[in-house]
Design a protein that fits this description.
Pfam families: ELFV_dehydrog (PF00208), ELFV_dehydrog_N (PF02812). The protein is α/β, with parallel strands linked by helices. The chain is built from 16 helices and 12 strands. It is globular and about 60 Å long.
């Protein structure tokens, strides 16, 4: 692991000690602290008043019981979480994840990342994250609704337009946000549109929110390639996952003239040399909620399903991990390099292990970290909040144009910051420093709170 500044090493040791066993959280903090040595060397005042220690400690952590009744009449118990990490820039903002792997360490890593990501958007939003170890797979609509209602029966007292504004993440899409919003409305007797984002269009959602994270990641990768006088045009691409982020990354890659050859889910991956048929993926995943193996069965021809294994074995020029944390390892990175990868963009949060990131950087392959590259989702959520506050509804084109402009700005700010701090082309360092400086400036202005 690369060395970090002595003072920051002590802060990291304290974080590890006080948050024992929360490995993903340690990993996320370490990555940011590795970048901050250069900032405090240049501007020591950012380390005053235990600012960095405070930034690593969530402002509030809520853990609660979520009881619900399944279709057989059995009472089930899950655990709910909301970590309100940092509100120096605005109300806490960040998604809810429903997945059996969720625990407090995962939610803390996501909330920590979210704080810097939201800062990078330039919008007035703080960082938070939440979720549950509930597994939505194989559950009926009725079970999903009862679970969401029970989850909101506790969460409602902690959220609000000016307090904390959740959205979706893994396992939480338009259907779940609808059930959560319905229960919030019922409990509070208020139609408070600004309390959740990712809403359906008919009750206050924003056009292009569904597409925003995947589109945004692709805009970022395109900007990265353009800065090297290249583009996605004609490139073979592989995207992992086949959920919200993956589907709309694939859609935008195609719009930029790239060809997506493979995508996956947690059981396996499909390869289709003719180019992934997106309408079929949408029907399987968004409408029927089936496994990606269905794709090969329905498509026939040369489409191939590989059970298990790694989607990163499929040769490509551009790789976009868009499933989950630590899904792309050092070994996968070496395979990608051997197969000629020229750019990597993280659609998911922290999908590349530290070893994978180092491998790409040492090979001089432009690498876009999730906290910058996937910020288009939360940025468009902030646009949804703007529309709700002004009781307005923008067109798709208007909203996507704002998204494209925001992504270009984030790209440029990461590139310029990396340059300013003596590490040109290092988007990880650029994103961490640019995000940190904005949060730190606000925290200093607000005093020790
Ligand atoms: P989603 O719609 O639920 O899709 C998740 C996809 O990843 C599914 O294909 C899922 O496969 C796969 N996956 C999940 N856990 C996995 C695991 N342990 N191993 C292998 N594959 C796994 O979720 P999403 O909204 O697209 O989110 C994907 C990533 O993007 C997450 O890291 C999320 O935090 C990040 N992100 C999302 C947004 C957003 O706006 N939605 C914004 C920023 C970042 P199965 O169906 O088999 O589980």
């Amino acid at each position: 692991m690369p060395p970090i500044d002595e003072k920051l090493e002590a802060i990291l040791a304290d974080v590890v000690h006080r948050n024992a066993g929360e490995e993903e959280f340690h990993q996320a903090v370490r990555e940011v602290l590795e970048s901050l040595g250069r900032v405090i060397a240049k501007h020591p005042h950012y380390a005053d008043q235990a600012l960095i220690e405070r930034i690593c400690e969530p402002e509030r952590q809520i853990i609660f019981r979520v009881p619900w009744v399944d279709d057989r009449g059995l009472v089930r118990i899950n655990r709910g979480f909301r970590v309100q990490f940092n509100s120096a820039l605005g109300p806490y903002k960040g998604g809810l994840r429903f997945h059996p792997s969720v625990n407090v360490g995962i939610i803390k890593f996501l909330g920590f990342e979210q704080t810097f990501k939201n800062a990078l958007t330039g919008m007035p939003i703080g960082g938070g994250k939440g979720g549950s170890d509930f597994d939505p797979r194989g559950r009926s609509d009725g079970e999903i609704m009862r679970f969401c209602q029970s989850f909101m029966t506790e969460l409602w007292r902690h959220v609000g337009e000016y307090t904390d504004v959740p959205a979706g993440d893994i396992g939480v899409g338009g259907r779940e946000i609808g059930y959560l919003f319905g229960q919030h409305k019922r409990l509070t007797n208020r139609f408070e549109a600004g309390v959740l984002t990712g809403k359906g269009l008919v009750y206050g959602g924003s056009r292009a929110r569904r597409e925003a994270t995947g589109y945004g990641t692709t805009y970022f990768v395109q900007s990265m390639l353009e800065s090297r006088s290249d583009s996605l045009e004609g490139k073979r691409c592989v995207v992992s996952g086949s959920g919200n982020v993956a589907i709309y990354a694939m859609e935008k890659i195609r719009a930029f003239g790239g060809k997506v050859i493979a995508c996956s889910d947690s059981n396996g991956y499909v390869v289709d040399e003719a180019g992934i048929d997106l309408d079929l993926v949408k029907e399987i995943k968004e409408v029927r909620r089936q496994r990606i193996s269905e794709y090969a069965r329905r498509k026939g021809g040369d489409a191939l399903y590989v059970e298990g294994g790694s989607v990163w074995d499929v040769p490509c020029a551009v790789a976009m991990p868009a499933a989950t944390q630590n899904e792309l390892t050092g070994k996968d990175a070496r395979t990608l390099l051997k197969n000629g990868v020229i750019a990597v963009g993280e659609g998911a949060n922290m999908p590349c292990t530290p070893e994978a990131i180092r491998t790409f950087q040492e090979a001089n392959v432009p690498f876009a970290p999730g906290k910058a590259a996937n910020a288009g989702g939360v940025a468009t959520s902030a646009l949804e909040m703007q529309q709700n506050a002004s009781r307005d509804s923008w067109t798709f084109g208007q909203t996507e144009a704002r998204l494209a402009e925001i992504m270009r700005r984030i790209h440029d700010s990461c590139a310029e910051t990396a340059e300013e701090y003596g590490a040109p082309g290092n988007y990880v360092l650029g994103a961490n420093i640019a995000g940190f400086v904005r949060v730190a400036e606000s925290m200093q202005a607000l005093g020790v709170v």
